[in-house]
Specification:
Elements: E1 14-18, H1 22-33, E2 37-41, H2 45-54, E3 56-60, E4 63-67, E5 70-72, E6 83-86, H3 93-100, E7 109-112, H4 119-124, E8 132-137, E9 140-145, E10 148-153, E11 156-161, H5 168-177, E12 183-186, H6 190-211, H7 215-218, H8 223-241, H9 248-258, H10 266-273, H11 283-292, H12 298-313
Parallel strand pairs: 1-2, 1-6, 2-5, 3-10, 6-7, 7-8, 11-12
Antiparallel strand pairs: 3-4, 8-11, 9-10
Helix pairs in contact: 6-8, 6-9, 6-10, 6-12, 11-12
């Protein structure tokens, strides 16, 4: 097993954040706040130039703050790091992993906090399974403009090993981020936690993206909330067929508690920005897992067809 970075050096840990969008910015700023030597790696030259010149601005309930950052489009200029955080869109994971290979040594922890199901499998094609940590976060953010991010909600982040049972690397990440005020929990049941998040995202993200409804509006009683519930129940049935026992009433209550305020889900933000969505690893993943287990999920199939049709019609598929 590889050596955990905290055991090898007394220097500040070296962190590379792959993707300087909303969540990459939030977690990268947290790494900086925690004292880590942090660099953002992004393929967008204009964004990198903006970050280098003006830094990052995080807007929260208590106001805004400026965070000086280092950013680059060239991972070769960075060298091997202790921790990589992948926070790109799911359809960029493979190209991002290829780009990041020069950052990874035998002791590097490779971490995905991305939406959906299957990102760990993509990373596993490039890096040793025992070096991969996967997770989900209930923090939410919005790109107000490049380099200016609204941290809309501070939630809990769950992380755990992609393979094996050791929680050493996950605990090291949790300890690293603790001084920055992010709630990170290392768990041995991370795959169940990913399914739990998938129940929420598969039911709320495409419904919001297709209607333009904010979180609070989507949570109002009526036909749309009924559709959210139907999608959640299909996803729960699929999770149970895959061996993950999640209690339906508890999961539906969590969805209702999340559907408040004027926040916009990531898929709605993608649609409004004219970007490809992550439907393939959210509802698409539910459909694939359901088909493999003979579970019927017509609502999830409909979401995939509708969102992919929208993407095709608007030229960003």
């Amino acid at each position: 097993m590889h050596e955990t970075p905290s055991h090898k050096s007394s220097e500040p840990p070296r962190v590379a954040v792959i993707g300087a969008g909303a969540m990459g910015s939030i977690f990268g700023a947290a790494c900086i706040d925690a004292g880590a030597d942090t660099v953002f790696v992004d393929v967008s030259a204009p964004l990198v130039e903006r970050l280098q010149e003006r830094g990052l601005v995080i807007v929260g309930p208590d106001g805004e703050r400026e965070v000086p950052v280092r950013a680059t489009t060239d991972p070769h200029s960075v060298g091997v790091v202790d921790l990589i955080l992948f926070l790109v869109k799911c359809y960029q994971t493979e190209s991002a992993a290829r780009l990041a290979k020069t950052l990874v040594g035998p002791e590097t922890i490779v971490t995905s906090l991305q939406n959906g199901w299957g990102n760990g499998e993509v990373l596993g094609r490039f890096f040793p399974d025992e070096q991969i940590v996967v997770g989900v976060t209930y923090d939410s953010g919005t790109v107000l403009e490049p380099g200016r991010i609204a941290h809309n909600y501070k939630g809990t982040t769950f992380i755990g090993p992609y393979a094996g049972e050791s929680l050493d690397d996950a605990r090291w990440i949790a300890d690293l981020l603790a001084p920055a005020g992010l709630g990170v929990v290392a768990t041995p049941t991370i795959r169940a936690a990913i399914w739990e998040k998938l129940v929420m995202t598969a039911s709320t993200l495409p419904t919001s993206a297709l209607t333009g409804l904010t979180s609070g509006a989507l949570g109002e009683p009526g036909p749309m909330l009924d559709l959210v519930d139907g999608l959640a129940l299909e996803t729960l049935e699929t999770a149970r067929a895959a061996g993950y026992e999640l209690e339906a009433a508890e999961q539906l209550e969590k969805i209702r508690l999340a559907l408040v305020g004027e926040g916009k889900g990531s898929m709605l933000q993608d649609v409004e920005a004219g970007r490809q969505t992550e439907i393939a690893v959210i509802n698409g993943a539910v459909v694939r897992e359901a088909e493999a287990r003979a579970v019927d999920v017509p609502l999830n199939r409909a979401m995939v067809a509708l969102v992919e049709g929208y993407e095709r019609a608007h030229g960003f598929a």
